[in-house]
């Protein structure tokens, strides 16, 4: 296979599966709370609304009962992580404290997600929620923050249930059986990899001149959720290539002094595009996830564009390398004995 063909295969899209339907539902779950906060003049609460809206990402093709159960479980974990992060930020916790708490959250969140059979797998969103809330420079009151998060999560649960009932009625063949729990020994290694990756990512993210430790921790745990060793290695490389490509889009967007309402519109559109492609190609999805994350950060706490772009690039590379080290070194005895196979598609 030629080098050009290898590059093409790397960016090739998988077959569509009516991805626009869950993408539209998930984008609506982000749009309604953000537009409400914009109308109220409280975009300082956008972090809590956005992360709670990640409830809608889970169980995207599951039947009504399973989707409601799994989305309720994911909402519980997301709200818990936001509450812990808010406690840390209001207490003025150090980056070390946030990193250690985030690492424990990564391990525990991955364990619970595996036992409960949540999809996307892993603890990426839980770590991202806790570390982002835990490093807010001016955290809001607990009642306002967690009230916003709880209402958003409930709204996304409603959207998810209505969407599942509609799909069960008109397209029952598209609904997948919910995944079962991961066996005991495997789930322990799964949790351990997440804990070590998050901790290592947080440590390298505290290097001088970086400044957004949360992004390094997220990049470190992102590859761990893939279902086999080869898939984890591929996911780490995709995280870097997709993010670096997404930085070009981010630079163009951040170069424009958008009004707040236009920033909200961009966040909603990018959320839709990310969910449209995340199952079909992880690298392509990151072209939209990267500017989405940067615009979200800019929305709540405007920073210089160059600072955000540099931090995202450096922390993604450092975090992905940390995750790759964990993937290569922390393998269960069964994984060391098993032949390396291809990776099934997933959204983890």
UniProtKB/TrEMBL annotation:
Its main location: membrane. It is found in: Membrane. InterPro entries: Memb_transporter_dom. The keyword Lyase does not apply. The chain crosses the membrane at residues 21-39, 72-89, 95-116, 145-164, 284-301, 307-330. GO terms for cellular component: membrane. Keywords: Membrane, Plasmid, Transmembrane, Transmembrane helix. Residues 203-326 form the Integral membrane bound transporter domain. It is a multi-pass membrane protein. This is FUSC family protein. The lineage of its organism: Bacteria, Thermotogati, Deinococcota, Deinococci, Deinococcales.
